[in-house]
Each structure stands twice: as structure tokens, then as C-alpha cells.
Amino acid sequence: MTLNNPVLGPIAVPQGWAAVDATVRGRTTRVVNTHLEPLSPAVQQAQAAELLAGPLDTTLPTVLLGDLNSAAGGVGAVPGRTDTPTYGQLLAAGFSDAWTARHRKDPGFTCCQAADLRNIASTLSQRIDYVVFRNGIKAVSTHRVGAEQADRTPSGLWPSDHAGVWSLLRIH
Questions:
Q1: CB 64 within 8 A of CB 54
Q2: Does residue 6 belong to any structural domain of this protein?
Q3: Does position 104 have pLDDT exceeding 80, yes or no?
Q4: Domain-located, residue 11
Q5: What is the CATH number of the domain that holds 88?
Q6: Are 144 and 164 in contact (CB under 8 A)?
Q7: Average pLDDT, stretch 57-81?
Q8: What is d(CA 37, CA 70) in angstroms, rounded to the nearest whole number?
Q9: Within a domain: residue 134?
Q10: Distance between CA 43 and CA 27 in Å, rounded?
Q11: Could you give the CA distance from residue 128 to residue 108 in angstroms, rounded to a whole number?
């Protein structure tokens, strides 16, 4: 992506993804990690389409994880930022969301604490960080870290502006 700065001119902002095919006990699973564009919904959707046509285009058991900057079901979405169809695009492509598979009533908000991490009460109000999967994988459990008051540092800071998400997955 290129940002146009009136003083500095065009500034290239490289973005991408990482993928690995991991084989354990003779079973191979593809794991893809990314951080999709937060400032341009059109770029974010193009990135998701690239992932679906590239590393996610496989019959292998597949896990995609990362900050997708697309609010789950639009809950808490910021207009023009996280109110994108990207999350729905992944579900339509056959991915299941590990959070909703295990926590049907808890929205599982992961974003966002104050930029300086000093807010007293949590300000998490949307879920944009995910573990999604398809092709023979089942979510056994899914959890957030860094979302509770007890997770704050001794000096009172939140560990990050986002809560982390981790899942225990089973391959069939």
C-alpha cells in the first residue's frame, strides 16, 4: 500500500502474510498469519481475496489467525474502518470462527484499549482478532488473554491495545 504524504511524497507500506505447512505425526496442516489493513476497507478486502486465492486455497486442514480489522458480525464496528465484509467473506469461504464455536453468548471483544494502555476500565468493544479454520479442524477451546483487570501490569498498564486469542484445535 502507498500513502501519499504532502511533505514526504509517496510512502510505501509493505504488508503481507506468513504461512507454514506443518507436519506432525504424518498429518499436514497449513497455518497462515496476517494483519489486514485497518485504514482502507478496499485494500483490506483485496488482501483477503489474495489470501483466499493464494495460501488459503488448499484442501489441507487450514488455520488463519491474526488481526483482520473486520468486526465480527458488525458488532461494535467503527464506520469506515472495521465495518468491512472481510469476516463474512471468510465465513462464506467455509471458515469457522473458533470463538463463536465455543462461546455463543460472549462477544469476545479484542479491541481496543487506549493507545497509551493507561485506561482504568477496559475499552474492548469489538472483536477483530481471530482464529478461523476449515477442512477437518474442530475447536476444542478458545480463550482471550489480556482482557481482564487481573491481566494488567503491576504499574497498571494493559499488556496490549488488543486482547490476544488462542485456541486448542483438533484435526480430524
A1: no
A2: no
A3: no
A4: no
A5: 3.60.10.10
A6: yes
A7: 92
A8: 9
A9: yes
A10: 34
A11: 10
